[in-house]
Structure formats: C-alpha cells, structure tokens
Amino acid sequence: MKRLLKIIHSLIPLLLILPTLSLAAQHKVIRVVDGDTIVVDYKGKNEKVRLLCVNTPESVHPDKKQNIPMGKVASNHAKDRLKGKYVDLEFEGPKRGKYGRLLAYVFVDEVNFNLELVREGLSPYYTKYGLSQKYDKEFREAEQYARNHNLNIWGDPELTQKYLRLKSKWGQYKSKVGSPATVQKKEWKYVASKKSNVFHRPDCKWVKKISTNNLVGFKSREEAIRSGRRPCKSCRP
Ligand SMILES: [Zn+2]
C-alpha cells in the first residue's frame, strides 16, 4: 500500500503537466511557402498563413527580379524550423487579410516564430499595416538586437539601406496609429488632440486618428476638464 502511494505520488507532477501538453501545438505545417508564409492544416483544411508583423525578402515571387539570395536564407530558415512541425496560431485584429489568408503569430515549440525572424535579422519589424498590438516592445527589441549584431539583412549594407528607407516610409503610418502605444507608455487616463476641445478615453476609436505629435494626455478627468475640453460623445469619458 505504502509503495502504491509512493507511485501515485511520483505521478502527480506528470498529471499536473498533462493539461498543458494537451494544449500543445494544434496545427500541422503542410508546406513552407517562403520565409513569412506557410500552409497549415487549420480545422481540417489546408490554409495559407501570412505571418504578422514580418516581411522577409522574396524567394518565390512571380517577378523573378524580386527574388534575392537573402529571401532563400529566410525561406530555408523557415523550412528548418517549421517543416512537418505542429504549430500554434495566435490572431490579432482581423483574422484574415485581403487575399483570404490567415494572419497570425506562429508559435513553434512555444517560441514566437515571427519574433524569431526579426531577431535573426531575416525580416524587419514590418509596420506597414500597423504596429503589433501584442508584441510591439518585443519586436522593437528583437530588431535592435539583430541590427546591433549585423545579422543577415543588417549585415548587408545594400539591404540595410533598402530596409531603412522602407521603414521610414512605414513610420508615417506608424505615427498615426502609434497613439495607443504612446498612451500606454505615459499612463494617461484621458487623451485629446492639441487641435481639439474634446477629450477621450484612450481606447476611443477617435484616438487612433490623432497623430502622435498632436497627442496630449491627462492623469485625471478633472485635469482634462481644466484644460477647457469637454467629454467625447462617443466614448463618454
Ligand atoms: Zn472619444
């Protein structure tokens, strides 16, 4: 009896991790298309997944001039890491893009593969369609790491120039939609535009339209009212 108890006792840690194991990766990777696109078995259907917040150099573009050796490096990296594996998908915002592809963060062995691509210098932090809502800080750090270590793209002067140019273009978009990140960082309770006499809750839809340069914040409702502003009718702060 004592021995049996001992055996049961030794099984407890295993029983505790079983629920975690059953939550483990759900979707089989059917094919790696290129560095930032894969096909997975999603609810019984083969579905294309475009990885969020990354854009690796091209390797299988129909316009062959766009395909560059670094694209092949990124594609091979994705194949090494993902081929035949089971992965998890994490969505953010709209689940599908304009071509019907799933837009997701891909987790392999519990590692965020999107972030890994940026940390390896195989992709810039791609903000053309907005900042990452869940991992903005991590993406910035990953890119800084890759640049500091001259990894892949950032070890090639020509590619570095190209991506810095692109990044400054995406930056215009970034400053528009970057407001929520700024608000979070400054711990503002209410916000407004310098150019308007209305104040909002930080999550109001109108806040996203305020450019970062024009954004002002308040630590309290009283402070917002003292500034001469009235509450927004849509978010009713
Ligand atoms: Zn509002």
Describe the structure.
The structure is a single chain. The chain is 38% helix and 20% strand. The protein is built from seven helices and ten strands. The strands form two sheets. It has a five-stranded mixed β-barrel with strand order 1-2-3-5-4. Strands 9-7-8-10 form a four-stranded mixed beta sheet. A hairpin with a 2-residue loop joins strand 2 and strand 3. The chain starts with a helix and ends in a 6-residue tail after the last strand. The site of zinc ion has 6 residues, from loops.
Number of separate strands: 10
As a whole number of angstroms, the C-alpha radius of gyration is: 23 Å
- Give start-end ranges of low-pLDDT stretches: 173-178
Order of helices and strands: HEEEHEEEHHHHEEEHE
> What oligomeric state do these chains adopt?
single chain
Helical residue percent?
25-40%
How far apart, in Å, are the first and last alpha carbons? Answer: 65 Å
Which secondary-structure class do the elements indicate?
Answer: alpha+beta
Strand content: 15-25%
Cofactors and ligands: zinc ion
- Strand adjacency order, main sheet: 1-2-3-5-4
How many helices in DSSP terms? 7
Q: So what's the overall shape?
A: globular
Mean pLDDT: 87
Summarize the structure.
The chain contains 7 helices and 10 strands.
